[in-house]
Write a structure and sequence with these properties.
Elements lengths: L1 H7 L4 H49 L6 E2 L2 E2 L2 H8 L12 H9 L13 H8 L4 H24 L19 H9 L3 H6 L6 H18 L22 H11 L16 H12 L11 H7 L3 H16 L8 E6 L4 E6 L2 E11 L8 E10 L3 E3 L1 H14 L3 H5 L1 E5 L21 E5 L10 E4 L8 E2 L13 E3 L3 E3 L2 H8 L8 H8 L5 E14 L3 E3 L5 E3 L6 H10 L16
Parallel strand pairs: 3-14, 5-12, 11-13
Antiparallel strand pairs: 1-2, 3-4, 4-5, 5-13, 6-10, 6-14, 7-9, 8-9, 10-11, 15-16
Helix pairs in contact: 2-6, 3-7, 4-6, 5-6, 9-13, 13-18
Amino acid sequence: MTGRIERRWGGTPRASHVAGMRLRAMATRVFVVLIGVVLIGASFARAEESSEISEAIRAMLAHEDPIVVDGVTLNAAWLRKLYEGRNGSGLWRDRVDAVTAVLRDAAAEGLDAAAYHPTAIANRSSDRSDEGRAALDLLVSDAVLRYASDVRYGKSRPRVTSEAAADAAPDPVPLVAVVADASDVASAMHALPPSHSEYRALRAALADYRALLAAHVEWPVVPDGPTLRPGMTDDAVVPILRARLAASGEYKGDVRQKSRRFDPALVAAVKSFQETHGLATDGTVGPLVRAALNVGPATRVEQLVVNMERWRWLPDDLGTRRVTVNIAAARVRFLDADRTLFESPVIVGETDKMTPTFSSAITQVVFNPSWTVPDKIARKELLPKVQQDRAYFARQGIRLVGSWHHDGDPMKVDWDAARDASGLRLRQAPGPQNPLGRVKFLIPNVFGVYLHDTSNRNLFRRDKRTLSHGCVRVGGALDFAEDLLANQPTWNAERRDKILSSWTTTTITLDAPVPVHLMYETAWLDPAGRTHFLDDVYGRDHRLADALAGRRSEPVSEVVRTAEP
């Protein structure tokens, strides 16, 4: 039977096997050719499709401004720059979902996801026409450009106002070009926010407080009443106080206990709360402590969001050796990397003479400075004094300079006839009564603000130190100067002692200016991971929160006022 089969196919068993192999090889070659034809056809189809999409993108970008897609006005200048040199090639294609997933999570950065075209992008995602896919690419690009600018440089970045100055926001196009060319766009977008550890800590705290809101957590409200002091008993307040501090983590004991006594464990919890809220840590519960306790999680979320925004206004590089002044906390720190070289209380501007925020550098240290009296102080404060006592200026070492100099002798001026001090320049010589004290630190800025010593050092003992005309008075200013000049080759103890042995003005220009950042931080995290919240003494948090949310708020003056000591 087997033999008949072999004869029917015309050969020996070996010949038949070889023939089968040839047939299979031929079939394989035909299959490969067919697959190649299909792939080439698909490639040509994609190329033609891609070409048509690119042509549609180029046509839309060439459109006369404004470019509007589905009711969304796009930033034409940014888009044209982003697509320049790409011949209209689409940037996102099959990566739209990865991009929009990051944009949907904008709230994690304290931003509103609705600002990044979610509805328009979702509606266009199902449009497979060339024009529709081109419009989708531009919508996504515009959304990423806006997000990159907001999350890196700030959504409500000031240029120059009476409250703040910041450099103009850089162009976000280079940032987005990196995202568009990345193999992992989600990771590239997560790298857009500021890299400062302080910003990342605020972001983590924001997530924690948002979780409280999502869980509908409500902190107990501590009722008004007499000041509660350690050891006192209060049936109404103590149980609520215990529950309130347990809710925010300061109290670790059993909230169900029936004791109505303000016991040591509860006192310790109050002191911990006071320490992280800028309050005197005396363990008593008075009006200020009650007010801080009754600020709920929603307000704290807002506070974290506005402080994250302010970090976006700062330079990427703060400087290894740097000085930071927290105006809200009235404190200064001199840092070398993460090591604190100097820290002290400061005195900042009164609420109607607010110290502004800005970044600059300390360029000069002036020992035994004279003080040129600002016009407003001369007119409102000094003129009435000299009108009552003609010898006042002589005792204070104040002389005339400028157009009314009268040989510099204030005794020769008819002060009774002087209605104001317009055109009059007063200068106080260095000395014990000079309000600048022994040293001042020059930092170039549009406000005329500088740091300086003071002749009235008792004021640093106060808890509330919004007392100046806008400049920053530094506690321990001579120690601060010593630390600043430590790397100056010509500086030594002998030179210091010689300078301070008299009241002769001496100016030292720093070989390496030290970056300085005047900030308004009402929320931050300490090295132990505790979140600190401060009172918004200047009302800036509310104004910035309104601006970020697009709500109407009182306008900030664009008039730059020269600060005073």
